[in-house]
Design brief:
The protein is α/β, with parallel strands linked by helices. Helix content is 38%, strand content 15%. Pfam families: Glycos_transf_2.
């Protein structure tokens, strides 16, 4: 199918930020320059470095396609995405993307993820570091091993048939996010990424992995912590137990309400 025939699809890229002033301006320009009229939602957790100020400055240039939600503090990756998902659904977007601000994810790969869903019929496309080996640049070997074997661990415990279960570069068709009871998503760090994939899989959505090259950030500071890793390890066990005693069911609500994070 010709990519241009799908220009009518509304596409929103969600990027949570905390202290990303060194990257955010370049990322905005990169996403705005893509073919396909992508829109961008930045969710900033009161970054003290002025990230939100830079976003507002760029809204003068991209007033119809660049959006900003400002939250009152550092509330976690998972809650940022849940707020973004609800906002996207309430605004009628067809395809919703998760992406990091630091260029570890190549903005050009957004088109490949979109094509996997819009052209090939998948409900969720994951930008995978491990589908064709280990495609990671500039990571220390310890972190590569930790990330790779985390996915092995997830598959062993849960049966989730995904090689990169902690990946944070994704494209959802809106039906996935409508089908998940978003308020029931429990985790906020890496376990959030696993829980969203596991839930989509349990609900029967079609999932694919698209090979990407992941390049570690060259600017700014990583948000990884021991607490986030611990949450993922224990969270996987909790998800498996929950799935046994409480089978996953599609959301039966007729609509998704977006609650302002500023309330």
């Amino acid at each position: 199918m010709d990519f241009r025939k799908n220009m009518k699809h509304r596409k929103l890229v969600i990027i949570p930020t905390y202290n990303e002033c060194e990257n955010i301006a370049d990322m905005i320009q990169a996403v705005m320059a893509l073919e396909g009229n992508f829109e961008l939602l930045i969710i900033d957790d009161a970054s003290p470095d002025g990230t939100a100020v830079l976003v507002r400055d760029h809204q003068n240039q991209f007033s119809d396609r660049l959006h900003l939600l400002e939250r009152k503090g550092k509330l976690g990756l998972g809650t940022a995405y849940i707020s973004g998902f609800k906002w996207a659904l309430s605004k009628g977007f067809d395809y919703i993307f998760e992406m990091d601000a630091d260029f570890s994810h190549d903005p050009k790969d957004l088109i490949r993820l979109y094509q996997a869903c819009a052209h090939e019929g998948f409900d969720l496309a994951i930008g995978s570091r491990y589908i064709t080996g280990v495609n990671v640049v500039n990571w220390p070997i310890g972190r590569v091993l930790m990330s790779y074997f985390a996915s092995v661990y997830v598959k062993f415990i849960t049966g989730l048939p995904i090689k990169d279960s902690t990946a944070g570069f994704k494209c959802y068709h809106r039906s996935v996010l409508e089908g998940i009871v978003l308020d029931n998503i429990r985790f906020i760090g890496y376990a959030f990424q696993i829980e969203m994939k596991f839930t989509a899989w349990k609900l029967g959505f079609k999932i694919t992995e698209v090979p990407i090259i992941f390049t570690d950030r060259t600017k700014g500071t990583s948000k990884m912590s021991k607490g986030i890793f611990k949450e993922a390890v224990l969270g996987v066990i909790w998800m498996k137990i929950k799935s046994i005693f409480s089978p996953y069911k599609l959301n039966q609500s007729e609509s998704i309400e977006w609650d302002s994070p500023l309330k």
